[in-house]
Amino acid sequence: MAMARMINGVDVARMTETIDAIKQDPEIAKFRFRANNIWDDGGHNMTTIHDFYGAKQNVDHLHDFHIEADEPEILLGHDLGANPVEMVLSAMAACLTTSLVYHAAARGITIRGVESELEGELDLRGFLGMSDDIRRGYQGINITMKVDADASQETLDELVLLARKQSPVADIVSNPVDIMVKGEVLETDLH
Question: Are residues 91 and 72 part of one domain?
Fold first, then answer.
């Protein structure tokens, strides 16, 4: 049995085994992630992440994840959590970082630290329906990734571009995704 080679906290041997397994059976690569959300009051709501489907099976997380969302007071909320567009920035930072670290590990490059600064431009007139000419979401996102690694500036630039290219969240934000929303009557006990 080959000894695990850890780079950046990534088991490169397991990564290679996973890639080889997917080459043999592409169905292993198909995942379905899930989230359940319950509204509380105003802009405050709570999302729970419990399980997902991947590698041809349902998988429970080791524990449920609870993500609290709200709006700041200036946007009529109680500031009990980050707002949804701030969560998009968080998801983008996390995914770019993971993509960078994993691809660096695959290339044998040691990363000692990654810090990201993100800023998104948004005009509320779109959300408020005041203008159909103004996008409802971010008009642009600027990201600066600071990386401490055993690599040249040229190699770091390549890794950052690769992270952007391979990031699922960057892809979700950059390209249209079919979104189907349906409403159902919520049955509540009125006793």
Answer: no
For residues 87 and 171, membership in a common domain is answered with yes
pLDDT in tens, 57-68: 999 999 999 999
Counted domains in the chain: 2
For the segment 66-110, what is each residue's pLDDT rounded down to a tens digit? 999 999 999 999 999 999 999 999 999 999 999 999 999 999 999
Domain CATH for 109: 3.30.300.20
pTM over 0.85, yes/no: yes
Closest CA to 136 of 144, 125, 121: 125
Say how far apart CA 53 and CA 56 lie, in whole Å: 7
In a domain, 191, yes or no: no
Are both 77 and 110 inside the same structural domain? no
User: What is residue 5's DSSP assignment?
Assistant: -
Is residue 1 pLDDT above 50, yes or no? Answer: no
Report the 10 Å Cβ neighbour count for 46. 16
Residues 106 and 127 both lie in one domain = yes
E runs forming strands in 4-154: 6-7, 10-11, 32-33, 36-41, 44-54, 57-69, 111-121, 140-149
